[in-house]
Amino acid sequence: MYSMQAIGYVRSPYRETKDIPKGLGAKHEAEGVLEILSEFAAGLADIEGFSHLYVFWLFDRSQGYELTASPPSDNRTHGVFATRSPRRPNAIGLTVVELLRCDGPLLQVRGIDMLDGTPILDIKPYLSSIPAEKLRRGWLAEAEARGKS
Amino acid sequence: MYSMQAIGYVRSPYRETKDIPKGLGAKHEAEGVLEILSEFAAGLADIEGFSHLYVFWLFDRSQGYELTASPPSDNRTHGVFATRSPRRPNAIGLTVVELLRCDGPLLQVRGIDMLDGTPILDIKPYLSSIPAEKLRRGWLAEAEARGKS
After folding, report:
1. Which of A52, A50, A41 is nearest to A7 (CA)?
2. CA-closest candidate to residue A125, choices B11, B79, B13
């Protein structure tokens, strides 16, 4: 067992899970703030040079886990590791956000899909991406194709 | 404080940190295996449809943390959250791997940059990417440009 601690908290317009856009074609354009605790703020030096960040966070309002999940984007169940279900063995969430502005320990970002008050575990620069033509998206691409037909 | 548990372990050709390619232009083409513990293997259902996976893992051989880091790709220090330093407040690593083959609880993957025996915390499908023309890479792009001149 490994212990993790919050390095800060998300300030988000979403107060309840039902407020967060989900499923096929959901757009995450919401703006919010990553409030980093003062004791960790020195770790943000030079972060303003990155356009996008990985935010690691905790599904702190999710209870327990299941090994299969029924994502909102499909009517079939899939293994939890083939989904982004919050009910996972380690309830880590990952969001890529666009960094709009830094104001000391407050990072103004776009692309929030977390609830207000969500604990932040880590932030890393988003550096590279897989070219679209090399990417296969498994059941999600199939579910999208079914949704369009 | 939040507790995390290993869902499996990485089988990697890298036994020591010095074996892992680092710095500007480092290529991660090494193949390895994600060995998922049998009690979590049902969570892998349908994962074979994805070409790439996010692997969340623990820098289990890293001790403590510092708020600034000197990455191998630059001779300047940066805030730890603007780097991928292992010495972070929560020692979570993230690697995007290419999924080559599934054999029950064993995922054969390419793109390993973890040490052999590294605990795996989570796996998620890699679904989308930021278009290259929208991506800014901060100090790393600058360090690359300096390295070329």
Report:
1. A41
2. B79
> Which residues are A80's β-sheet partners?
none
What tokens were used for A79? Answer: 């293994």
Q: B10-56 pLDDT, tens per residue? A: 999 999 999 998 876 677 889 999 999 999 999 999 999 888 899 99
Is the distance from CB of A103 to CB of A41 less than 8 angstroms?
no
CA distances, B75 to each of A91, B69, B70, B71, B139 (Å) = 36, 10, 7, 7, 11
| C-beta of residue B31 within 8 angstroms of C-beta of residue B110 | yes
- Give the gap in angstroms from C-alpha A5 to the nearest C-alpha of chain B: 5
* pTM for this entry: 0.90
Q: How far apart are CA A95 and CA A53, in angstroms?
A: 8
Query: A57 in contact with B at a CB cutoff of 8 Å?
Result: no
CB contact under 8 A, B44 and A82: yes
How many Å apart are CA B122 and CA B10, to the nearest integer?
A: 12
- CA–CA dist B130, A128 (Å, integer): 8
Q: Please, are residues A34 and A102 in contact by the beta-carbon 8 Å criterion?
A: no
B15 touches chain A (CB under 8 A): no
Please give the backbone phi and psi of residue A141, each rounded to the nearest 5 degrees, phi first: -60, -40
Is A121's CB within 8 Å of B92's CB? yes
Q: Kindly determine whether residue B2 and residue A7, on different chains, have CB atoms separated by under 8 Å.
A: no
- Closest approach of chain B CAs to the CA of A42, in angstroms? 6
